[in-house]
């Protein structure tokens, strides 16, 4: 196959445009923020789970505090009733029974108040834990949002670069004969690189040196001959054609 040497040299520009597109795609896939976002999302979920546990423990203890408060209130009301009955007077036996019940209520109230104090101290500690857990969730969410913003900014830049290189590629393709482009595209799909500059005896596409006989054939070819690398099949573009 033959093609104008200038058209063959345009393939180097096309190969560079494709290389830039590959680099953009690689940078998009390996963007550090992608892995960091995954870690941040897991951290947010873990912090949210910890908050749920802390809130559940606090709620359970809060219900226990209210239960004890109700019991203490009932004991106090019973005590008030008994004192009113004693104040009203009555048979000695009844007075004795009321006095005994008041002593029992006093002991019960003391036990309940001790339990209430202990649990309220625990609730206070759990409330602090809930506050810290909530702050940890907020901090983790903010970190995630920052990473997502950085990712979106980087991806937007990649989109711009990719569009520019695609436009360059389309412009180059339009200036090269279709049959030459067809060979280039076929090789690129199979090997990744469709054309390379012959640098001394080395193929610019696969970076392998041609053996003596292959190199002689390339050098003896006419300037408009389309020559291929025997190793990778890429179109070899010669500097002086």
Could you characterize what this model shows?
The chain has helices at 5-29, 32-88, 92-173, 178-191, 212-220; strands at residues 195-199, 202-203, 227-228, 235-237. The chain folds into two domains: 5-25 and 177-237, no CATH class; 31-157, Helix Hairpins. It is 78% helix and 5% strand. Strands 2-1-4-3 form a four-stranded mixed sheet. It is built from five helices and four strands. A hairpin with a 2-residue loop joins β1 (195-199) and β2. α1 (5-29) packs antiparallel against α3 (92-173) and α2 packs antiparallel against α3 (92-173). By secondary structure, the protein is mostly helical.
Summarize the structure in short.
The protein is mostly helical and 241 residues long. It has five helices and four strands. The chain folds into two domains: 5-25 and 177-237, no CATH class; 31-157, Helix Hairpins (Orthogonal Bundle), CATH 1.10.287.1490.
């Amino acid at each position: 196959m033959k093609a104008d040497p200038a058209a063959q040299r345009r393939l180097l520009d096309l190969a560079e445009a494709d290389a830039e597109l590959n680099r953009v795609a690689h940078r998009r896939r390996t963007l550090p923020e992608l892995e960091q976002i995954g870690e941040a999302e897991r951290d947010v979920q873990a912090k949210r789970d910890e908050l749920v546990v802390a809130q559940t423990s606090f709620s359970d203890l809060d219900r226990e505090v209210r239960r004890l408060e109700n019991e203490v209130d009932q004991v106090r009301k019973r005590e008030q009733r008994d004192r009113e009955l004693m104040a009203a007077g009555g048979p000695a036996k009844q007075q004795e029974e009321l006095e005994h019940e008041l002593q029992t209520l006093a002991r019960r109230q003391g036990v309940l108040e001790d339990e209430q104090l202990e649990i309220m101290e625990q609730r206070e500690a759990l409330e602090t834990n809930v506050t810290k857990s909530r702050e940890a969730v907020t901090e983790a969410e903010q970190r995630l949002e920052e990473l997502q913003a950085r990712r979106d900014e980087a991806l937007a830049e990649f989109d711009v670069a990719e569009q520019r290189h695609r436009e360059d590629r389309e412009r180059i393709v339009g200036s090269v004969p279709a049959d030459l482009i067809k060979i280039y595209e076929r090789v690129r799909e199979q090997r990744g690189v469709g054309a390379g500059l012959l640098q001394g005896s080395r193929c610019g596409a696969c970076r392998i040196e041609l053996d003596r006989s292959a190199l002689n054939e390339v050098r003896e070819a006419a300037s408009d001959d389309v020559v291929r690398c025997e190793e990778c099949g890429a179109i070899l573009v010669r500097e002086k054609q």
